[in-house]
Amino acid sequence: MSGATTGDAVPAGGAPAGAGAAVNGATPVEPLVDGQSAALHGPEVIPAGRTVRVTVPASSGNVGPGYDCLGLALGRYDRLTVTRTGSGLTFELTGEGSDEVPRTAEHLVIRAMRTAWRAAGLLELPGLHVVAENRIPHSRGMGSSASAIVAGVAAANALLPEELRLDANALLQICSQMEGHPDNVAPSLLGGLVISYAAEDGYRSVPVRVHGEIRPVVAVPDYEVPTRLARGLIPEAVPHRDAAANSGRAALLVHAATADPAQLFAGTADLLHQQYRAGAMAPSAALLARLRGRGLPAIISGAGPTVLVLAEDAERAALAAEEIRAFGEDPASSLDGRRVTWAVEELTVDAEGVIVETVESGELS
Ligand SMILES: Nc1ncnc2c1ncn2[C@@H]1O[C@H](COP(=O)(O)OP(=O)(O)O)[C@@H](O)[C@H]1O
Ligand SMILES: N[C@@H](CCOP(=O)(O)O)C(=O)O
C-alpha cells in the first residue's frame, strides 16, 4: 500500500474489535462506527480455489520517544498464502513461532481475517487453507503480532469480490483496533516511518520518507518479552517535565530520520517507556546503555527486548554491529544465570508496506 491514509469513517459493519479487546492488552481508541450494519453476505461470495499471497514487513514501534505513535517498517517479511477451500481450516506453518501458535480459528491471522470479513458483512468463515512462512520473530519487539494482523486483514480483503472490499482507512482502523495501538500496524501497512495519532473518531497515519543513508541494525536476543507484559509496566502518569522533554525529542526524531541523521542520537532519547520496562529486559537495557554510551542512536525496539540502532550511515552500522557482538561476551549479557546470545542483522527500511498478489491456480509454489 502506498500514500497517506486519510481519516474517513470506517465503513458500516461495526466495530471489528471493540475497546479493550486488543491483542496486546492495550486500550484502543473507541472504534469509529456509524451504527449501521453492512449488508450481509454468505461465504459463497468468495469462489473456491481463489488464492491470495501477502508479503508483510516487520516493524519497530515507538522508535525511541514516539511511544504508541511512531513506527518504522523493516525489511524482514512474513509471507502468507491463503486459498479458499470447500470447508474446514488447514495450516502449513513454517519458521518463527510455527510450533507455538494454534492451528485453529484462534490463530491470529484467522482472527484478523474474520474481523475484516465481519466489517464487510461476511459473518461465516469459509473453508481456508493457510500457508504461513514466518521470518519475524515473536515477542521480541519487531511487531510480529501487528504483521500477522495486517497479513490476515489484507488477505481477507483481497479474497473479497471488488465491490465488497474495505478501503485503506478501514484497514488501518481494523488493524489498529485489533493491535490496540497504531504504531506497528501502520508501517506494516504503509511502509517507511509512519506518524500515527488517535483522533476523536479514529486513527490517522502519515508516512514520511526515511533518509537514504540510515541503516537499521537489530540485536535480537534469544529471550522473549510479551508486549502485553511490557505494557503493564508503563505508569498511568508521568512527570509533566518528562512529557515536555519527550515531545522535543520526538519532534527532533522526525527531522533526524528524514533530513538530518546527525541528529539521530539526540532524537532517539526517550522518557516515556524504556526506563519503566528495563527490569523486564535487563540484558537489553545494559546493551542499550553501552551503545548509547558510545554515542550510537540505540533504542529498545517496540516493547523489547530487541535493541535497534538507527545508524547514521553504513560505517556507523558496522561499528554498532561490532559493539553488539562484543557485548555478547560481557557478563551483563546474561539472564537467569545463562549467557544471552544476540542475532545481529543490518536491515533495510521497507518503503512499500504490505504487498498483496492474486495467485492464479498453477502458480502456487
Ligand atoms: N505470524 C503469526 N501467526 C500467528 N500468531 C502470531 C504471529 N505473529 C505473532 N503472533 C502472536 O502474537 C504473539 C506475539 O505478540 P507480541 O507479544 O505482541 O510480540 P511482538 O513484539 O512480536 O508483536 C505470539 O506469541 C503469537 O501468539
Ligand atoms: N508502542 C508499543 C509497541 C509494541 O511493539 P511490539 O513489537 O513489542 O509489539 C509498545 O511500546 O507497547
Automatic annotation (TrEMBL):
HAMAP family according to UniProt: Homoser_kinase (MF_00384)
Annotated source species: Rothia santali
Domain GHMP kinase N-terminal: 108-192
Reaction(s) catalysed (UniProt annotation): L-homoserine + ATP = O-phospho-L-homoserine + ADP + H(+)
Keyword Kinase (UniProt): yes
Its EC number(s): 2.7.1.39
GO cellular component entries: cytoplasm
Residues the entry annotates as binding ATP: 137-147
Domain GHMP kinase C-terminal: 271-329
GO BP of this protein: threonine biosynthetic process
Entry-linked Pfam families: GHMP_kinases_C (PF08544), GHMP_kinases_N (PF00288)
NCBIfam families attached to this UniProt entry: thrB
Subcellular location: Cytoplasm
Pathway: Amino-acid biosynthesis; L-threonine biosynthesis; L-threonine from L-aspartate: step 4/5
Main function: Catalyzes the ATP-dependent phosphorylation of L-homoserine to L-homoserine phosphate.
Family, per entry: Belongs to the GHMP kinase family. Homoserine kinase subfamily.
Record-given protein name: Homoserine kinase
GO terms, molecular function: ATP binding; homoserine kinase activity
UniProt keyword annotations, A-Z: Amino-acid biosynthesis, ATP-binding, Cytoplasm, Kinase, Nucleotide-binding, Threonine biosynthesis, Transferase
Domain of life: Bacteria
PANTHER family attached to this UniProt entry: HOMOSERINE KINASE, HOMOSERINE/4-DIPHOSPHOCYTIDYL-2-C-METHYL-D-ERYTHRITOL KINASE
